[in-house]
Amino acid sequence: MQRLPRQSFERHSACRRGGKILLTGAELAGGWRLACRHFIAGDLKLELAQWEIPILSDQSTFKFALREGLGAAIDLGTTTIAAQLLDLQTGGVLAVVTALNAQARHGGDIMSRVEFALRGGQVELQRVVRELQLAKGAIAAGLRMLAARFGASLDDIHQLHLAGAFGNYVNRTSAQRIGLLRVSINRVVPAGNTALLGAKRALFEDPAGWDAVARRVEHMALNEDKDFHDTYAEEMRFPA
User: Fold this and answer.
1) Is-contact 25 6, C-beta < 8 A?
2) Spatial contact of 60 and 39, defined as CB atoms under 8 Å apart
3) For residue 206, what pLDDT is reported?
4) Which of 46, 48, 159, 191 is most buried when burial is the number of CB atoms within 10 A of its CB?
C-alpha cells in the first residue's frame, strides 16, 4: 500500500469527511489506511479494535457500622447490571460482576443506538429516533412539572444531579441542544452510580435512618397530573 504524502493528507477526501480528520498524521506514519479506499492484492494482517462499553460501578467511601456476614449490592440498570459482594465486617468489596443487557449490542446509550440505526436502515432509524423522542419528552416534562410543583422554574434550579451511566457519560451539550436539559450545563453534575452506592449504604447503615428517608420521599405520578399530556407533547419536539 502506498502512503499518502503529507500534502495529500491535508486535503485528501479519504482522510477528511465533513471537516473531520479521519486519519491523523501519526496514524498515517504508522501505516494505517482507510479500508474503503484500498483493494487487497495479497495476504494482509488486520488489527481490529474490540467493541466495549464502560459499565459504571462505584468505589465511594462512607462511614458504616460493622456487622456479621456478607451482603450483596445490585444495580439493575436499563443498559447495564452491576453487582458487588461486600464483607459487612470490614466494608471491603470481595467481588464485582458486571453485565450488559440485550439492547447494548446496538450501543451503550440511546445516541449510540441512533448511530446504529443510521447504518441499519430507515425503519430502524425511525424506531430509535421515536424512542429518543419519547424519552426526551418524558424527562424534560418531568423536570418542568417537578419544578412547578414547588412554585419554581427551571431557572431556579442551582444544581442538577444526573445519576447512573446516563448521567456519567451523556454529552451535556448535546442533551441541552435537543432540549433534554433546559438548564445551564454548568449546573449539571454527574452523580455516579447512586443506585449501587445507595444499596451498599443500606447494607451497613441503621435501617431506621433509611425508613426516615423513605417517609420524606414523595412519589409524583406524572400521568395523573392534568397538565402532563400537554407538557409531554410540547417537550417531545426537537428544537429547530
Assistant:
1) yes
2) no
3) 83
4) 191
What size, in residues, is the chain? 240
C-alpha cell at 97: 460482576
Question: Rounded distance, CA 81 to CA 83, Å?
Answer: 7
Alpha helices for the chain (secondary structure H): 6-11, 25-29, 110-120, 122-149, 164-169, 172-177, 194-204, 207-216, 228-235
pLDDT, one tens digit per residue, over 91-101 is 888 888 888 76
Higher-confidence residue of 6 and 74: namely 74
In this structure, how many other beta carbons lie within 10 angstroms of the beta carbon of residue 9?
19
Output the pTM of the full model: 0.53
- The SS3 of residue 177 is helix
pLDDT digits (tens, 9 = 90+) for 92-150: 888 888 887 665 555 555 555 555 655 555 556 677 777 788 888 888 999 999 999 88
How far separated are the first and last CA of the chain, in Å rounded?
45
Q: How would DSSP label each residue in 97-138?
A: EEEE-GGGGG-SSHHHHHHHHHHH-HHHHHHHHHHHHHHHHH
Give 100's strand partners: 80
- Pairwise CA distance, residues 132 & 125, whole Å: 11
Contact 185, 176 (CB under 8 A): yes
| CA–CA gap between residue 6 and residue 12 (Å, rounded) | 10
* ∠ Cα 14 17 18 (to 5°): 155
